[in-house]
Amino acid sequence: MKKLSAKDVTSEILFNKRRNFLKLGAASIVASSALVDLMAKENLPLSNLKYLKDANENDLKLNTFKEITSYNNFYEFTTSKEKVKDLAKDMDTSSWKITIDGLVKNPITIDVQDLIKKYALEERIYRFRCVEGWAMVVPWIGFELKKLIEDVEPQAKAKYVKFTTKYDTEMFPDQSRGVFSSITYPYVEGLRMDEAMNPLTLLAVGLYGKTLEGQNGAPIRLVVPWKYGFKSIKSIDKITFLEEEPLNTWQAQNKNEYGFYANVNPKVDHPRWTQKRERVLGSFFKKKTLAFNGYEKEVGHMYKDMDLTKNF
Amino acid sequence: MKKIIWFVAFLPLAYMLLELFIFQNASDPIKYIYSITGTAAIAILFLTTTLSLWFKKLVKHRRLIGLFGFFYAFLHMANFLILDMELDVLFALEETLDKPFIYLGMISFTALVFMSVTSTKILFKKYNKYHKVLYLVLILTTIHFVMAQKSLSILQFTYLGIFAVILLAKINKKTKFFTFKEKIKA
């Protein structure tokens, strides 16, 4: 055993420095654990995004983080809205790349992390209305799709934008079921160019201040608040600019029941159920569904010459 | 035996109430009540028609089991009128006449009301021959169940498969269309 000599003794200055450092560390642990406690009490996740807050001028009542992350339609996992959360728990969305191609001057394949750095994030508190008749209010974090479109510069011919969800049979169990899968994959959605350029249209990367959970469409998804939820495609792999209207998944599945536009419209029922009212999650009572989900002022002009009973 | 039937028949209701009010796991309560009561009603009614195939001891309790099926159908209906339509009878009527999905359920429920009312000893003697309408109810409610889904999962296809196989076995038993034993002899 080695004998200790005077030079092995820690100097007093260094000793006190270490002391202070440890105290600081302990204090910060206490502080952050107090924060964690508070977050847990409010059922909020730990924030990991920097963004501009939404003033919530319409005074919408937010659904809880738990509600938003526990009831999801994500057929790539399962058709059960309650079971998606558990199945999506191990979804690995690190180093996720998104490709922008088709009729654009600057096609690009970019890591979602780089996109997040490139565009300033902002919070958007939006109503979300599912075609099935339930609804919620979500504080999304993201950036306007418009900004991305301006950067890739669509050619004059480009009239539509097509979105495709990732096809990865290892990631999504229902995609690996082949002919026994519940719908045809990959999931496809589309917007007309003016819809895509509307300032309400968002590419969301988070909600409640935190990056998206798998079940909500991590790492990046579309949010089109005046359309039924199925238009707001999840876990995007590719954005393609086209001249022709793309055939979206639900229209391909059943064109008598689901169209290309899918604007929220209390005057046009789904053939099997009413769209006049909606069940807001977390409430036993129903509320009246609003035209364009309450965004008529912002988006109504885009459809003023269209017959919305035909273009449902 | 009766006690066991009462106990088992109340399990879906107990489970539903626990999930709704104690654990509060149901994000969309109206939808949740539809699913549990609808599934319980179809399963119990289907069971009553198949007792003679696999559980002869229960055949004499058929009436009680059938009434439990009606009980869940009644809750399903109450959910429609009270929570979903918020007692707006006119709106409920419009919706019913307008949508096949809803009137199939409504026709089935009407038939079940008829069967329940005529299930007393005296009335049953007179009306039992009409109780075969239950087979029609099962077919209509199965279509109603399929229509309630946006797309059918493989699990639901499996249920429908089992349903079809038992129905065929039942029809076969009644009509003696296939006589397996004779085939073996030959």
Annotation keywords:
heterodimer, A: 312 residues, alpha+beta, 8 helices, globular, B: 186 residues, mainly alpha, 9 helices, disordered C terminus
Following the backbone from N to C, one meets helices and strands of chain B in this order, namely: HHHHHHHHH
Helix/strand class of chain B: mainly alpha
User: Cα-atom Rg of chain A, whole angstroms?
Assistant: 24 Å
Q: Please count the helical segments of chain A.
A: 8
Order of helices and strands of chain A: HHHEEHEEHEEHEEEEHEEH
Assign an overall shape of chain B: globular
Q: What does the main sheet of chain A amount to?
A: 7 strands, mixed
Q: Taking all residues together, what is the mean pLDDT of chain B?
A: 88
Tell how many strands the DSSP assignment of chain A holds: 12
Regions with little confidence, pLDDT below 50 for 5+ residues of chain A = none
Q: Can you give the helix content of chain A as a percent range?
A: 10-25%
Total beta strand runs of chain B: 0
Radius of gyration of chain B, whole Å? 18 Å
Helical proportion of chain B, percent range = over 70%
Oligomer: heterodimer
Taking pLDDT < 50 over at least 5 consecutive residues as the criterion, the unreliable ranges of chain B are: 182-186
Largest sheet of chain B: none
Q: Work out the strand percent of chain B.
A: under 5%
Note the gap between the termini of chain A: 85 Å
Layout of secondary structure:
The complex is a heterodimer of chains A (312) and B (186).
Chain A: H1 12-41, H2 65-70, H3 84-87, E1 97-102, E2 108-111, H4 112-118, E3 122-129, E4 134-144, H5 145-152, E5 160-165, E6 188-192, H6 193-197, E7 202-207, E8 210-211, E9 221-223, E10 236-242, H7 249-253, E11 277-280, E12 286-288, H8 296-299
Parallel strand pairs in A: 1-10, 4-11
Antiparallel strand pairs in A: 1-2, 3-4, 4-7, 5-6, 5-10, 7-8, 7-9, 11-12
Chain B: H1 2-22, H2 29-54, H3 62-84, H4 89-98, H5 100-117, H6 121-127, H7 133-147, H8 154-175, H9 180-185
